[in-house]
Amino acid sequence: MKGKFFFLIALWKANLLSAMEYRTAFLSQVIGMVLNDAVYFLFWVIFFNKFKEVRGWGLSDMFLMFGIVAAGFGIAAYLFGNVMNLAELISQGQMDYYLAFPQPVLLHVLASRSIASGFGDFSYGVISFFLAGQFTPAALGRFALGILLSATVFLSFLVLVQSLAFWIGNAQMLSSQAINAIISFSSYPNTLFDGTSKLLLFTLIPAAFVGAVPAEFVRSASWESFLLLIAAATTLLLAASVTFHRGLRRYESGSALQIQI
Amino acid sequence: MKKYWAIFKIQLLNRMAYAGDLIIQSLTIILFMWIFMQLWKTTYHSTSQDTLNGLTLHDTMWYLMMAETIMLSKPRLSRTIAATVKDGSIAYLLNKPYHFILYQLSIGVGDLAARTLFNLLSGSIIVWILVGPPPDPRGWPLVIVAFMLGWLIDFCLNTLIGLAAFASEEIAAFEWIYSKFLLLLGGVLIPLDFLPPFLRSVSMALPFAYTVYGPARLFVDPTLERFAGLVSMQLIWLLTLGLFTLFVFNKASSRLAINGG
């Protein structure tokens, strides 16, 4: 376990050093993404300025939920950036490089790439959290825990969907739709959805565990939402790991020459 | 003009050869329309009004369908152009017997036609099911004209962002911020009619409103007065941005240095 942890730290360090070689590009992506998120969030400022609330949700609730979604997504994309390309790597037979190492394959693949703009999303998420007016150290602690669990759910869901490439081959398009779905649904107030839609958001597209449930945990410090979140994150993480490793047995190499820089 | 027509046809056929991908891509608009329906149904219900700023729920949903079709059907030309600048393949395109900008335009229209067809179909089916039939079909020819002029404005802005790669290493941040301006000031997320007066006048003074809001609003209110006002503003912006794009392209390509290959 200790070895895996140091391996992960070494990968993140290598990613950071590589990003620092192109400092201007890195900074422009980080700052660009903060501005990008801020301009997008203006929609909610305008919306709640005009309509005040939607089924009990107001602007500060949106600041908090958007903060968790942005920071959770950001941390996942920055630390485990290859999660966006997993289906492509599988279907094009480009996993050989990772299979040759005596390290956990899934962890190695995911952490081998870092998406710089993810750091921008994370930064905006933190700003959004403070704009929600949650200033106590306890709330900050819950926020940290919330984004960690939100990122776990997001990562696990993407690994699950992209692992389908082991069975169906080209799953890139399906994956991009899944990413769109989970981000879109998690960025809207949970109270908008009821009946079948709500059931979907807690099961097939677990967007509720990326935004609304962690936001509820941070806001109300309720044990119920915390346990629900822990259960969802653990189940999805296990399902993702089992599915990926089952699929890996079916993997076929592309026999292509690969150069890892 | 024959060669550009041929490029357009080839690109269109290329896209249509992968109709399955286009169908999966068009699922995004179904997802967005579903979410928008939940949001705006709740909002109209909570205000207890049938009409908000001159738009009924039916108008708002068809407006958003057209706005999303415009947004989701746009090819990512800035990225393509920037890639040719960064990897030097622009040199290969510049010495061919066609104008680089018109070549990109033909490719872009080919992509646009294929994507628009599928997005429009999927979007229309879901919105028809949700709120009833589309607005007066007699206005559709006017909308097609406004749609194309709006797309040409967007093409100029995208080309300018792509050409920024001559000066900047990374253009992703410009691309994100432009897309967020379109979402907010272009009226993709919310009809500009719902914006506060000051922000609305700012939006109407910028080109973004004439790429998305103008054609989408004309779709739900197809009057000749609205069409005349919209097209005249679109032509002014198109002329200004078109000339500026050509100026920037000529400047940039005259400074292009190719170091072997």
Q: Can you put this structure into words, describing what you see?
A:
The complex is a heterodimer of chains A (261) and B (261). With 261 residues, chain A is mainly alpha-helical. Chain A has one domain. Helix content of chain A is 73%, strand content 0%. Chain A contains 13 helices and no strands. In chain A, helix 2 (23-51) packs parallel to helix 7 (116-131), helix 3 packs across helix 8 (137-162) and helix 3 (59-79) packs across helix 12 (212-220). Chain A is globular, with a radius of gyration of 19 Å. The two termini of chain A are 27 Å apart. Chain B is mainly α and 261 residues long. Chain B has one domain (2-254). Helices cover 74% and strands 2% of the residues of chain B. Chain B has helices at 2-17, 19-25, 27-47, 57-73, 77-86, 90-94, 100-131, 140-163, 172-184, 197-204, 213-220, 224-254; strands at 51-52, 55-56. Chain B has a two-stranded antiparallel ribbon. In chain B, a hairpin with a 2-residue loop joins strand 1 and strand 2 (55-56). In chain B, helix 3 (27-47) packs across helix 7 (100-131) and helix 4 (57-73) runs antiparallel to helix 7. Chain B is globular, with a radius of gyration of 19 Å. The two termini of chain B are 31 Å apart. The relative contact order of chain B is 0.14. The chains are: A mainly alpha (261), B mainly alpha (261). The A-B interface holds A 22, 24-25, 28-29, 31-33, 35-36, 39-40, 42-43, 46-47, 49-51, 53-55, 117, 173-174, 177, 180-181, 184-185, 188, 192-193, 197 and B 21, 24-25, 27-28, 31-32, 34-35, 38-39, 42-43, 46-47, 168-170, 172-174, 176-177, 179-181, 183-184, 189-190, 194-196, 199.
